[in-house]
Amino acid sequence: MRIEYHRTLIADQVRNEAFFRALKAVIEPGKSVVADIGAGTGLLGLMAAKLGAKEVFLFETAEVSRVAAAVLKANKAKFCHLIPCHSTEFHDKLAADIIVSETLGNYALEENIIATLADARRRFLKRGGHVLPSNIAQHVAPVIAPRIDEELRAWQRVGHGLDLSAAQTMTLNNAYVRQLAPAELLDAGRSAVAWDAVDLKRETQAERKGKAEWRFAAPATIYGFAAWWTAELVPGVSLSTGPGAPRTHWEQLYFPLLSPLEIKAREILLLDLRSNSSEHAGTHLAWTASYKNARGAILARQVLDLDKGFLP
Length: 312
Description:
Layout (H helix, E strand, L loop, with lengths): L2 H8 L2 H14 L6 E5 L5 H8 L4 E5 L5 H10 L5 E4 L12 E5 L12 H12 E8 L2 E9 L3 H6 L12 H8 L3 E3 L14 E7 L8 E8 L4 E15 L2 E4 L11 E12 L4 E11 L3 E11 L5 E8 L7
Parallel strand pairs: 1-2, 1-4, 2-3, 4-5
Antiparallel strand pairs: 6-8, 6-10, 7-12, 9-13, 10-11, 10-12, 13-14, 14-15
């Protein structure tokens, strides 16, 4: 059982307080029925009960559901009902006023929140009900500090006349969970671009793609890209994993380059990002970086794909 992982969730006060505030904003004491999907140890469900929810249904398919059962019992949460299966496997009738799900990863969509909430919204949610989170925006910014790039190029420093370039290429075709400081980003992160917007209140695709573009006023060396997300839980209550946001247990993703890009003033840097996540196939990520001169001619292009980062 990954109890240590769940401890990190419980220790994340920024996360916990944001969800508490969001639930408080939408729960009508004595009236609201809440479905907590991916309940873990039961914290959000217990919060909902504490805030006066009429009933709370907690879905948890992992082994930690045994812990959730003990936690609910210890808290005498008689209006909380633990359902030890994935919400998509539950076919009894359920009418919820609120669906809440903290199934967010360092890459926002890696735990299949789009498909899970789409199913729950169609089958469980009452007309006019609330989905928490309601929206996710994905951001990206160029990284101008060499720290992580140097870490990933250890294969090139082995020496002794040995060529480990095949392993080096695999290393660079991966995404890395790292904490970056704003100073390590172009324009201290102020030029970050929102490359994707996910509306969880309506039908949307799990396959995502988007673009980002930066025009340089001064020369810069780009070593990779930092990506993060902002989730709106309810209007006025959001969570962000950005470098300048209050620290959570989540961190940013770092997308490497095959080689650093030397960008001159007036040149344009382009990034295409693509992802697809599913319960059965996992998460696939791919990114293509290119840059153009001031006249629009493409000078270089690098294509990277997470599928190339693992041995078959």
